[in-house]
TrEMBL record:
The protein, known as: Podospora anserina S mat+ genomic DNA chromosome 5, supercontig 9
Region (Disordered): 347-380
Coiled-coil zones: 264-329
Keywords: Coiled coil
Compositional bias segments (type: Basic and acidic residues): 347-369
Organism field: Podospora anserina (strain S / ATCC MYA-4624 / DSM 980 / FGSC 10383)
Amino acid sequence: MGFEGGFVVDEVDAYALAINLGTNPKETLVKLQATRFESSQVINLVNAAADLDIDKPDREIIRFQDVNVYASPLGCIIGTQVYPPGFVVQGKAFILDKKVEIDCRIGSEGLKLKGEIEGFTLGPLAIRGGKGADGTQGENAFIDFEITKERQCFELSGSVALWDLEAGVFVKAQIMPDPELEFNFELAWSDLIKFQVDGKLIKPEPADRELEKGGAGANTGALANLEDADFQLHALMEQRILTEISEAMQKWFASAQASVDQGIEEAKRKVDEAKLEFERKCEEAKQEVKRTQAKFDAAMEAAQADLRAEEEKCRREQVENEQYILEEEKRADEHIRQAVAILDGKKRDFQDDMDGKKRDLAQKRRDGEEAINGKIRDLQGSREKLQRDFGNAIQALESARARVNEEECKWSSPQGMS
């Protein structure tokens, strides 16, 4: 299944698309092109694909331009259009209006990778290109990597600065068409310490190249065997710490010497004035101590006199309280004895009364039992008399009923009726 065309989202964002899917994964094709690809367009695409409603940011943070994504392992044909094999990722990204560009191709020619970051400064952070072997510094950081039949090269350049610390690197290594090797490493800590190393491969003379078979093969051998290669190296280490310290110490000693020469007399005068002021304050402090001591002695004597008076008063009150306690204890003991005698008398009266009531209760219980027994005997006699009387009445009633029956029989028979 193959498709080639484009689509539009919200009648604003247009995209070119080609895709081929089949049973053979090697014939797969994916191609996407967009001349401008902003963050709002990404949100539009996500909203349209997932049926969402994501709000767009107030400020554009990132946008893409000239986006080209192409992937086809073995190439394919859609209609009359022929798509060669290869992989391509191209595009420019602008992050806060700073450009980042990438171009990666894998095809019939080989591998080509190029990336570039536009130099920028953000607060204390600064990114720009590195310094080459000749000392010139590029504006943008970049990477260039290529492996083709005509050229095999790797090149990296960039530097990062954060406040007073800066680190930079530049490397260029090439095998074809001519062997080259250049590098530059630099580390700087403000203006006090700097360290830099740069080098360059010295190419062999033309006479040496002719010893090998073919120019390109000789060049490749010269770079592959680095042990026999010659390099031009340059190293620099610069530090100004000791100089800065020496200059600062000299300025300090000069300032101290000037201060000493100009201020000795002033210092003596200030010492004398301070001494007089100290003695005056010491005398005032002594007088104040004497006055305070006199006040303290008077207050102490008055306090001691009050303490002695309070002690005498407490002693008298203690004697009076002890006598009062003894008398109260005697009165309390007498009241207790009287209360105990009264309580014993009341206990005896209560016991006597309780014993009398118990005897009366026993007598009444015997009288009650006797009366109950008499009533029971009377009731038993009445019951026996009733039974006798009721038995005679029943017999008389039966006799009367028998006579009535006899009379009825008589009156019912014919003889009786005649």
